[in-house]
Each structure stands twice: as C-alpha cells, then as structure tokens.
Amino acid sequence: MVATMTSVSMTDLKANLSRYIREVRRGGEVEVLDRGTPVALITKPKSIPKPSGNDAFEEMIRAGVLTRGNGCAREILDKPLIDLGGGLSSLIIEDREDRV
Predict the structure, then answer these.
(1) If pLDDT is split at 50, 70 and 90, which confidence band does 23 have?
(2) Which residues are registered as beta bridge partners of 42?
(3) Using CB atoms within 10 A of its CB, is residue 83 exposed (0-12), middle (13-18) or buried (19+)?
(4) What sign does the CA torsion over 86, 92, 93, 97 have?
(5) What are the start-end ranges of the H helices in 1-100?
(6) Kindly report the CA angle at 45 between 63 and 11, in degrees rounded to 5?
(7) What global pTM score does this model have?
(8) pLDDT digits (tens, 9 = 90+) for 61-94
C-alpha cells in the first residue's frame, strides 16, 4: 500500500479531525497548512517498545514517585488513621465547590 499525502488547512483539520486521524491510521499522512504554508505533518508513530512492568516500576522509583518497600506492612497498618473531619463525601463536595 502506498501512503497518500493529504494537505489540509488548520480550519478544515479542526472541523474534520476524526476523518483525518482515520486516514493516518490507514497509513496516510496529513500535511497541515497555515495560510498555505506547511506547519505540521501528522503520521503514524514509529513502533516504540514499551517498557516491561519491571522497567516502569524501576523508572518510577528513580523519579521518586515510588519508594521500595521493606516487605513489612505492619508499620503502615499500625499508624493512626487520618481524621478527615466529617467524612470523605463532605471533603469531595468542599473540594468541588469552586467548580460549580
């Protein structure tokens, strides 16, 4: 299959994004024009190997997102519970009040 190149204005791209994404999925390419000047090219991504679960875990540890446990959950379970001051639902409502 030969990849096709379609040129499209940004206005048309915004109005018909799903159509152009389907075209890219089928192997085509979409050149995006801003006032007739090419500014972007939409293509399928190259195949990038995803890290294995263990690699992702190690990456999160290096980033400081996770810390390695010591195998004993007793320390955590013996800590006193946090007083949420009225229950979880009231805290969620309070948190969302500024968005209503």
Answers:
(1) very high
(2) 30
(3) exposed
(4) positive
(5) 10-15, 17-25, 53-63, 74-78, 88-96
(6) 110
(7) 0.46
(8) 888 888 888 888 888 788 888 777 777 888 788 8
Quick one: CA dihedral 32, 34, 37, 40, positive or negative? negative
- Positive or negative, the CA dihedral 17, 18, 21, 23 is negative
Q: Which residues pair with 40 in a beta bridge?
A: 32
Task: Let me know: does 30 contact 13? Beta carbons within 8 Å.
Answer: yes
Helices (H) and strands (E) in the chain, counts: 5, 3
Count the residues in the chain. 100
Burial (CB count <10 Å: 0-12, 13-18, 19+), residue 30: buried
